[in-house]
């Protein structure tokens, strides 16, 4: 497989019971690219993200992740090279920011019993905490953090093991507009601090695309509506087709927005 390719799905189908959820998905993500996956509820975004994260393998077709073919590789080993940010992080203990970030090295939700970090591991955690602007919060505990701080902590946790691929599953969920903007700035910063990193971000909302997004995959009802450079994919025509509603897409100062297309009023003058 081409070393420049991070992810490649070819004609992937996926079945659950007697239901086919994905019907022939193909797309290629090159290393260092930043993709967004967009589509309405039930389009298949989480299922596709499951392949990207080496959580499941296709029913038919092929999925190559970081040079490994799913179905022929030990998924656990591959997952160590992938950082996964899930804002519904099911943490129960009141861990500090540093402790949460360190669970990115142990691959666990909680701190494993009888585990303590080495000096190197602590240094790695502190480095990534600083990068994400959480330096002053390192000792604060999870329950006391704002949603925005939790989001940044989870990105730090995903980055601490120095992954090749970062998956962000609706990272702006539950954030107010200021916290969302801060989080998007943080994500944009990663293309400078981690230039080799490849990322895939899932969202329903065009307003939640980081300015650094270069490519998009638009899904609807288990099929690809369009995939490729973001400017070619996120047209009013494609987005309207994907969401089954007339939508006008706008791109201004690097940011995207969408609203329902309105019929023009015809003014009748006497
Ligand atoms: N385990 C399962 N068994 C049966 N159907 C499933 C299963 N998991 C997902 N589906 C169906 O597959 C389709 C795609 O689901 P998926 O969660 O991938 O979509 P999504 O685009 O992530 O949706 P959302 O935006 O609502 O999170 C949906 O119709 C869903 O009901």
TrEMBL record:
Per the record's keyword annotation, is Nucleotide-binding included, yes or no? Answer: yes
Q: Which residues form the ABC transporter domain?
A: 7-246
Q: So which domain of life are we looking at?
A: Bacteria
SMART domains assigned to the protein according to its UniProt record, in alphabetical order: AAA
Molecular functions per Gene Ontology: ATP binding; ATP hydrolysis activity
Key words, A-Z: ATP-binding, Nucleotide-binding, Transport
Q: Does the keyword Transport apply?
A: yes
Signal sequence span is: none
A Pfam family of this chain: ABC_tran
UniProt-listed InterPro entries: AAA+_ATPase, ABC_transporter-like_ATP-bd, Metal_Ion_Import_ABC, P-loop_NTPase
Q: What is this protein called?
A: ABC transporter ATP-binding protein
Supply the source organism's classification. Answer: Bacteria, Bacillati, Actinomycetota, Actinomycetes, Micrococcales
């Amino acid at each position: 497989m081409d070393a420049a390719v991070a992810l490649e799905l070819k004609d992937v189908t996926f079945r659950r019971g007697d239901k086919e959820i994905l019907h022939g998905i193909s797309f290629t993500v090159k290393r260092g690219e930043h993709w967004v996956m967009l589509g309405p509820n039930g389009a298949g975004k989480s299922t596709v993200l499951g392949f990207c994260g080496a959580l499941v393998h296709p029913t038919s077709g092929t999925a190559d992740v970081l040079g490994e073919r799913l179905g022929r590789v030990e998924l656990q080993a591959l997952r160590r090279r992938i950082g996964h940010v899930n804002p519904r992080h099911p943490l129960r203990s009141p861990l500090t920011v540093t402790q949460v970030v360190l669970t990115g090295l142990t691959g666990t939700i909680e701190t494993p019993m009888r585990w303590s970090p080495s000096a190197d591991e602590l240094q790695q955690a502190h480095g990534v905490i600083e990068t994400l602007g959480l330096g002053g919060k390192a000792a604060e505990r999870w329950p006391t953090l704002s949603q925005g701080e939790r989001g940044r902590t989870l990105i730090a946790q995903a980055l601490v093991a120095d992954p090749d691929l970062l998956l962000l599953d609706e990272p702006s969920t539950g954030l107010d507009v200021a916290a969302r903007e801060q989080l998007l700035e943080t994500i944009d910063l990663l293309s400078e601090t981690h230039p080799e990193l490849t990322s895939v971000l899932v969202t329903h909302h065009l307003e939640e695309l980081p300015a650094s997004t270069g490519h998009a995959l638009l899904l609807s009802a288990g099929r690809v509506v369009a995939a490729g450079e973001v400017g070619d994919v996120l047209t009013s025509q494609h987005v309207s087709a994907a969401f089954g509603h007339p939508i006008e897409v706008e791109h201004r100062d690097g940011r995207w927005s969408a609203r329902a297309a309105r019929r023009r009023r015809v003014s009748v003058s006497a």
